[in-house]
Amino acid sequence: MLMFRRNYAKRCNTSSKFKLLPEYKLKCGLEIHTQLKTENKLFSLSTNSPFSDVDKPNYHTSFFDVSLPGTQPILNPEAILFALRLSLALQCKINMNSHFDRKHYFYGDQPLGYQITQHYSPFSNTGKLRLFKDLDSIEEQTKDISVIQLQIEQDTGKSVYDSADSITKIDLNRSNVPLIEMVTGPDFTDLKQIRAFIKKYQNLVRHLRISTGDLETGAMRVDVNISINDYARVELKNLPNTSSIASAVKYEYSRQVNMIENGEGDKLRNAETRGWTGSETVKLRSKESIIDYRYMPDPELPNIVLTSDVVDGVKDMLPVLPDDTCMSLMQEPYRLSLKDAKILTINSNSRDELYTHDELRKYYLDTFEAYRSLCERHHQEFLRKLPANWIIHELLGNLNKMEITLYEICRSLSPEKFAELLLLISNKTLSNASGKLLLAHVLNSFKENSFAAGKPLNFLELIDEFELQAVADVESEGLELICERILAEVNNDKMINDIKSGKKKNSIKFLVGQAMRISQGRIEALEFETTFKKILKVSW
Ligand SMILES: Nc1ncnc2c1ncn2[C@@H]1O[C@H](COP(=O)(O)OP(=O)(O)OP(=O)(O)O)[C@@H](O)[C@H]1O
Ligand SMILES: [Mg+2]
Ligand SMILES: [Mg+2]
């Protein structure tokens, strides 16, 4: 037995890098619960704010949310609209006549005694989400993940264990928050696909503005079902973030392979549900012992009857989906790299307070157009890459560093103004280095003046004031003099020899840096690099 275990550990190299073994095929399906950010709860007029007022338990509740006898559910149509947006974006078949069912179980944070969900006739089914090799970093060119069904249901309350008093307290702020449960087919065959799907689905719900999609708060919760070859599935729950999902999948795959190799495969014949402790999966229950939920149609709620007008209307109003936007940014006239196109398309949640990808994309597109027409007007060569380089790398870098929002910047440095800066760089009034200095200065002074409306920005005046004019057409003797001076100052034969031989090509950047310092950035770095190479007779 021990031999088998060592054998497996060796082959899948568990200690360093996780590897799937070809003879043990991974099969995996996901169930994802997503809280909808509607104004009100699913069946009541309570505010739907499960994460605000954490210090006020049972604050966002109505008589219905706390299950007072005699209260009745009233369906919130906004939740239907959100479910319709998501179903259409996932190319699902819409059920024009779905209904709600009661799923009975007893738990303290579910005082009704049942959860209102959709069991017999869910909202939509048979959709798909396509993953792409380049866009989603998967191995295959494309991979379709099928969506088996999508249903609307209510969230439960929360049980909070109070260790000081040794009692469990119930908070019903989350009770009756609208949820969508989306179930995929068992189509995943490796971890990259699982990671890619979760990220893509999260980005989609954010893009459709139907959920925050945050895993950390529990606004999005992922259950992973795993099996190997033809054994039964194991359902994994309590996976609070992407790294626990990945670790749990790796752990569970290895556990199941070990069991099969140790001759314990029979124990994998029955489906079970396991939880993730942070370091291992532990059995919660077996699927057979699951209680009978005694599903029954909810008699207090009418069917959700849709007309094709409503469905078509929502379809027409869907925003362009992130993949399509990303692909169009990589084509004419923008021809962005995949990396830059993704930055303008995919929600970067961590810096959401400074800019959203939608704002940033709009700023980029407007600047691109303004710069293009300025170039035409001034008969200047249009450098297609300039707007992306300066917005995604320079501007964004400064926003992050100075902690200022794109929204505030837009008021003083509009895309039209930014295009003027780009024109000054492309017609060589400003060197790259001086352009960077000027941009940083402008942003900094906006910040210092708290973005108060002041004198309109005039780049030419600022260039004069700070003497930032690029030194154009520098005499080559002038350049050579500066370079010779630096070589003498540096006085490091070893470094010079390593540059000449090509052993340390990068050291030339150090010399260029010194030259830029002396010329205060007013001469292009490339000019210095060429001169150094000439003086040192570099042949690489
Ligand atoms: N052999 C298998 N291996 C891995 N995953 C599987 C396998 N068979 C089914 N699945 C996945 O298991 C999941 C089943 O989810 P579904 O919601 O239908 O049932 P459930 O887990 O019993 O219900 P509940 O919502 O009460 O948890 C799907 O994501 C499906 O793709
Ligand atoms: Mg399940
Ligand atoms: Mg399920």
UniProtKB/TrEMBL annotation:
- Residues in domain Asn/Gln amidotransferase? 369-536
**Which species expresses this protein natively?**
Kluyveromyces dobzhanskii CBS 2104
Q: Which chain positions lie within coiled-coil regions?
A: none
Subunit structure as annotated in this protein's UniProt entry: Subunit of the heterotrimeric GatFAB amidotransferase (AdT) complex, composed of A, B and F subunits.
Q: Which family does the entry's similarity section mention?
A: Belongs to the GatB/GatE family. GatB subfamily.
Q: What PROSITE patterns does the record tag this protein with?
A: GATB
Xref: Pfam families: GatB_N (PF02934), GatB_Yqey (PF02637)
GO CC terms of this entry: glutamyl-tRNA(Gln) amidotransferase complex; mitochondrion
Keywords carried by this UniProt record = ATP-binding, Ligase, Mitochondrion, Nucleotide-binding, Protein biosynthesis
Keyword Acetylation belongs to the record: no
Catalytic activity, as annotated: L-glutamyl-tRNA(Gln) + L-glutamine + ATP + H2O = L-glutaminyl-tRNA(Gln) + L-glutamate + ADP + phosphate + H(+)
Task: Name the lineage.
Answer: Eukaryota, Fungi, Dikarya, Ascomycota, Saccharomycotina
Q: Tell me the GO molecular function terms.
A: ATP binding; glutaminyl-tRNA synthase (glutamine-hydrolyzing) activity
What GO biological process terms are annotated to this protein in UniProt? glutaminyl-tRNAGln biosynthesis via transamidation; mitochondrial translation
UniProt protein name:
Glutamyl-tRNA(Gln) amidotransferase subunit B, mitochondrial
Q: Subcellular location, in the record's words?
A: Mitochondrion
